[in-house]
Amino acid sequence: MNADLDLLKRLEVLSRDLVWTWLEEGPAFWSAFSPEGFAQPPHNPAALLAAMAPEEQLRRAHASMAALLSLETRRAAYLSKMGLDTWHDLVGRPLRGPVAYFSAEFGLHESLPTYSGGLGILAGDHTKSASDLGLPFVGIGLLYRQGYVRQEIDAKGQQQNVYEDFDFATLPISPARALDGGPQLEVLVEMGDETVKCRVFRAVVGRVSLLLLDTDVEGNAPEQRRITQRLYGGDHQTRIRQELVLAIGGLQALCALGIEPQVFHLNEGHSAFLVLERARMALSEGRARDVAEALSLGRRSSVFTTHTPVEAGHDRFDAELLWRHLRPMAEVLGLSRAALLALGHWHDERDAEAPFNMTMLALHACGRYNGVAALHGVVSREMFARFFPGTPVDEVPVRHVTNGVHAPSWQCPELVAMLEHVAPETFRNRPAGDPSWNAVYDLDDAELWHWRTRNKAALFSLIKARETARAARLSRPPPHLELSTDVLTIGFARRFATYKRATLLFSDLPRLEGLLERAPGPIQFLFAGKAHPADHPGQSFIQEVTRLAERFEGRVRFIEGYDIELGRALTRGVDVWLNNPRRPMEASGTSGMKAAMNGVLNLSILDGWWPEGFDGENGWAIGEARVYSTEAEQDAADAASLHHLLEHAVLPTYYTRDALGLPRGWMKMMKRSIATLTPRFSSDRQVQDYVHHIYCPG
Predict the structure, then answer these.
(1) CA distances, 196 to each of 114, 270, 274 (Å)
(2) Which CATH class is domain 94-142+232-403+689-695?
(3) pLDDT in tens, 645-665
(4) How far from 297 is each of 100, 248, 287, 345, CA to CA, in Å?
(5) Cis peptide before 94 (omega within 30 of 0)
(6) pTM flag (> 0.90)
């Protein structure tokens, strides 16, 4: 009996440590344990166990014992390196205390739906790399009862926003408990005249943890319980309450757990109220004499990352709404209404009742700031120059740390195995430019091309399943036109914000149609992405793409329900990754990085990360790095460049084959993409840059 209980506990531990998602033994074990269950999205072992009787769990565990032991052995070896020979250990442990990383969303895996898009995926990859590198680190976020919108496309091509309650017992999380091991930790957050109770959950992510706060707690009023109902849902009052829970509740949770961070990292302005709560604590504990000294103390250990390249995009709250929620805090800090509001304004703001800008609060009270790509750093310095009067724009103290992606999560395991066959495993940890990366060019062309074809087939199988499910929901026959692995396939998948210009390809339909007629071979365009429920122009772009899909009869597809699973399949399975935002409005973008490390060639505007990655031989650059007098002029020039590149570069390179049917020129570019972009745009490099330049400068 004790042996059975021990085995059940081992299964539970494995299911609730998300490290399984990027150790190759993880999917291998869960596929062996429950082939039919694990194959179903969201591929959640915790939910599999919750739905299975203990006797059945034991039977399946014994039947897949070899795979179970393999995963346990690999996980134990991974965890045992902490404090001994991780990267952080080898560089002298510059962080003596943890980094507390506050973010409104975390995209770690589809089984934990606490993300909406790029910001959350970035936070998830940052967390995983912090674990891989051995950083002392804890993430702080919110646990949403309904997560973010699940997208369905109706018969008219319109996005329908679907929400469903999640059963927290089936998610890979556990109740967080105080140091004495008592009941689940709860913290209290003051919001004006109200006090809101928050439960704290913990997600284990390898060597680090993620704390998630939930207000759907017995004893809270109905409107309080709805605070954490939806990510980016509700009105401005819901939004300010979410941000108070994230910042104040998050800090209180850290204190209750005895965690004393060395660095507080604000990932966007959503958590900027943290600086006020830290100041309040400094005053109450006698570490500061007044609010100015308290804010100064916090500034030394607070860092702020901005992801927004336009001033209008920053979070703002009406002055009265802010005062209603923060008046008790202001009184403790000794701040008048005007003084509190001034912390959310430019220094030269003339309207004392202007909306409170969360980015301004972060700039006032953090010691270091950064954008997320080199070009975004330039844009941010120009945008924030007003905050630093008298400082030349190029000396405005906003650095940049270019984003990266977690290679073990996004790079296809089959490709990794092929790479390890031509070079030692350690070369994948070498920096960009290291000669070890030249081993990529030794990959066998035929083997690499067969791998690309298999990845395409896997992607098309997923798309067929989703299209069949949609057809059944709409009482329609499934699409009769099959996708072909022999056809050049171009992917466009991201949030459908208007500046990302999802319809740029179709802005000159006669030219596009002529291009398709003259092409040396066919093209398949695959689109996916959600628009925010309140973004009606973005939703109209989705409807336009679905309408055009009917016109182009199978050569254009829109796949509903964009999520991590579909994103992973697309960035592994297409041939070309299309990215055409209106420059310079893309802060970074990361999906193209995921595609690049899988040999998918980027066809992109020189915006975000691409100016740093493009070398003339590892993809293509759309348009010019210049400023246009009007958006219409910019759109026309970029569309013309896109069509020209498709006709004269992309299509000929793909369809030029040798006697064996292999596109040798294309494969040379694939290898260069993998070799030059994988090390430079990994989240390991990103987190290392944060440690050296932002967390522990000098």
Answers:
(1) 21, 18, 17
(2) alpha beta
(3) 999 999 999 999 999 999 999
(4) 16, 17, 9, 21
(5) no
(6) yes
